[in-house]
Amino acid sequence: MKSMMEEEREERRDYLIGLAAAILLTAVPFAAVAFGWFPRGVDYAIIAVAGVLQIVCQFRYFLHIDLSRSKRDDLQLILFSGLICLLMVGGTIWIIFNQYAQM
Amino acid sequence: MSSIDKKHPGLNLGRSDPGAHQDAEEIVFGFWVFLMSDLVLFALLFATFATMIGRTADGPGPQEFFDLKSVAIESALLLISSFTFGYASLAMKYRPEPMKVVRWLGVTLLLGIGFLGFEVHDFVTMAGKGGTPQTSGFLSAFFALVPTHGLHVFAGCIWIVVMIVQTLAYGLARDVKLRILRLGLFWHFLDIVWIAIISVVYLRALA
User: What residue stretch is flagged as signal peptide (chain A) (predicted)?
Assistant: First the structure.
């Protein structure tokens, strides 16, 4: 059994890791866009990768969701909501752009 | 028994307050279900925005309106506020003094208000340049998506004020702790939505 002090230290460390990740993963895409070091396609890739990584980091370090067993199936709910979002967003974009192409 | 007994998303009270931890399982999960439904709302606003990219009706586009420096400041304020909220949660879990929690919540509140101040300033500047929702499909979708997030942050700020008052009035009672746990989820969630907004709306347009 971990002592409360150990538990506190670990949780504090989680928030600090989260903050560091957030700063890094925000600063990189902003810098790429602000200074225009790369062609636009590379910028898009940097923005997408940094954005997804940052969302994963925030779920992990701020919302404390990980792959360990959870009584309440929180991760499954996230994955299901993610699926719903993907279907609706993907479907909307697919259909609207299909319509647009046919007009 | 090496890992913490986790019952719900966010910081778990665990052994620091077993009674509240027991109650939290159901209450926090219920709030998490609400947050996921809120996520669907934002997803659809993002979908609408995605279909309206470039539909500026020959009017001004994102290049004319978006100010990268202002968005960077807003992002910094909101990201740091998520971190300071984490420290409020830690203080609530491990420190019996309510004033520590109140101080961290106060810092978070100031950062949230600062974020809203910059955001409102951005919107006013846009409106001054003719960027109003009725100008084009692009701007309609923009003003449906981004201010909805701002409105959530505003609601979160009111909620923080309420929790500061409750903490001062009742101390760290069980109900107060459970409410701060839920507020924490809400606040971190808004941070995640903001990441999506800066990526999809601002950075993509200015790249």
Answer: none
